[in-house]
Input
Amino acid sequence: MASAAGKKVAMVIANNFEDSEAIDPKNHLESLGAEVVLIAAAPGAFNGKKGGSLTAERTFADVDPAEFDMLVIPGGGAPENLRIHKPAVEFTRAFVQSGKPVGSICHGPQLLISAKVLNGRTVTAVNKIGDDIVNAGGNYVDEALVIDGNLITSRVPGDLPVFNEALGKALIG
Amino acid sequence: MASAAGKKVAMVIANNFEDSEAIDPKNHLESLGAEVVLIAAAPGAFNGKKGGSLTAERTFADVDPAEFDMLVIPGGGAPENLRIHKPAVEFTRAFVQSGKPVGSICHGPQLLISAKVLNGRTVTAVNKIGDDIVNAGGNYVDEALVIDGNLITSRVPGDLPVFNEALGKALIG
Output
């Protein structure tokens, strides 16, 4: 079996993250051998919307996209909290522009919208933000998994099996 | 004191509404003598994000904008639930286009974005959706109260005193 040993994944979190959309990809990528680094606006513990908790080891102020092989943006209320934090927006923009794989699920594209990287890109997301994706110049489609270049997107927790598999494949390359 | 007796207000709700942003304007407008009618995608009780509950007496399928003198859109997670319900979007579009006053607070403009009525309009909202308002052609400003023609907007529960006062004035005329 292929391994992601030595690969480093940036996962961005904030309060009100959708628990399974953070924890499941984290566990999956770690099971493949990758290191998953949680990044937030400040160090410390953040609450999931369903009662879970994750602790961020790093902040946007002290990371460089060059350190990482992949970016993962879980959904819930976290993306709208991250999109108003300028260093998170700049990190996300630089990461997408680097061409390295970026996974986004549910409300994750709210952060991509604020990073101004969706123009001409095809993505999926929770249907509640479809109009915002279109207004940002993106092409919104309602599918379990969409891969457009380095953007890997899914809609809801029910899509996690195909989302996780796609993240693993993109990371191992 | 001026009275809003005989005036009828449409308040649109869905699950995860911000409790105070629905209940405070409802109480204020009723105290002025208005009738506030709760409208939802289906009849029944809906849960506020902070534990409250409101019961919708009417649905979008059985209302006409001509029945009402004002529309109020509370925030929280309700607007993103309403914006994917086509009859709610059509009701909102017709109401804004009627020229009658429309109050929106917090995430309320998500429904206005999907109703495609923000082009060229100046509004405020919770800052988390500012980029989406701009991408919809609106002018987003960060102020406690913004009045642009028939659009009356505020940001957060802390703005409710000025929001409620502006709604009352607009209703009494």
About this structure: Chain B touches chain A at residues 80-81, 83-84, 110, 113-114, 127-132, 135-136 (CB under 8 Å). Chain B is about 30% helix and 25% strand. The CA atoms of residues 96 and 157 of chain B lie 23 Å apart. Residues 8-172 of chain B form a domain with the Rossmann fold fold (CATH 3.40.50.880).
